[in-house]
């Protein structure tokens, strides 16, 4: 299936990295509730990963996050020599249409470097009861066969729609050998939603056998909450309450 060429006047994304990425990439994007972003931030911290690359953004209003006076790229890659895994942290909020271009850039990069699969950790703002406080999956057939058949308790999301980077990743995954899995869990309005982030960390830990302890995440999330307070407010301004309620069922 052919794809339309990117608009030369639109946003452009390119991946710059210092080392070969792992066979698997785990990504978390900046979205409502910040659960996925908090989860991957915690994985980087707990696994003691080092920054090994970033995504360059041209033609899109950007942010420059910083901590204790030190700036950092808004979308970064982390890895370790003894771990066949790369973690992507996307603090930059990317709207749905540019999100598809970001997905294209990421998947061109994974294809060029022999990466076999990409997993996304995400929170979704849907009305839900206590029984829905769990993680669900939307995944390509090859990802399900590799990761979700034996011994995993991550049920499929029944129906709905995805947009932005998540949709772009899954669409490209349908057309290529790259396995793509999007793991979603309901989130509440507070940011970060710590309980949702813990569920996503536990899911990544179980599927990839990372040996991560999610118990200290609540204390870690307090630090993240202070760091991302302004970011959360900006995202909520762009994603009105209920705007995605019909996307997942």
UniProtKB/TrEMBL annotation:
Organism: Halorubrum trapanicum
Protein's UniProt name: Proteasome assembly chaperone family protein
PANTHER family in the cross-refs: 3-ISOPROPYLMALATE DEHYDRATASE-RELATED, PROTEASOME ASSEMBLY CHAPERONE FAMILY PROTEIN
Pfam families linked to this entry: PAC2
InterPro entries (UniProt xref): Proteasome_assmbl_chaperone_2, PSMG2_sf
């Amino acid at each position: 299936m052919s794809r339309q060429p990117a608009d030369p006047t639109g946003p452009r994304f390119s991946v710059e990295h210092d080392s070969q990425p792992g066979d698997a990439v785990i990504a978390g994007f900046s979205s409502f509730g910040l659960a996925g972003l908090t989860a991957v931030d915690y994985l980087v911290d707990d696994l003691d990963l080092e920054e090994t690359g970033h995504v360059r953004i041209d033609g899109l209003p950007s942010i420059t996050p910083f901590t204790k006076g030190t700036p950092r790229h808004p979308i970064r890659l982390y890895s370790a020599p003894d771990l066949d895994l790369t973690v992507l942290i996307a603090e930059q909020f990317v709207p749905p249409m540019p999100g598809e271009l970001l997905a294209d850039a990421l998947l061109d990069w994974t294809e060029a470097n022999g990466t076999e699969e990409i997993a996304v950790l995400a929170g979704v703002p849907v009305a839900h009861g206590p029984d829905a406080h769990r993680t669900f999956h939307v995944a390509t057939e090859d990802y399900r066969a590799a990761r979700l058949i034996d011994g995993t308790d991550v049920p499929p999301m029944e129906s709905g729609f995805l947009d932005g980077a998540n949709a772009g990743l899954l669409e490209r995954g349908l057309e290529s050998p790259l396995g793509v899995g999007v793991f979603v869990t309901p989130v509440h309005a507070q940011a970060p939603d710590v309980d949702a982030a813990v569920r996503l960390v536990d899911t990544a830990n179980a599927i990839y056998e990372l040996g991560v302890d999610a118990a200290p995440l609540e204390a870690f999330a307090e630090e993240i909450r202070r760091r991302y307070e302004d970011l959360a407010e900006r995202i909520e301004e762009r994603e009105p309450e209920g705007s995605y309620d019909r996307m997942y069922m």
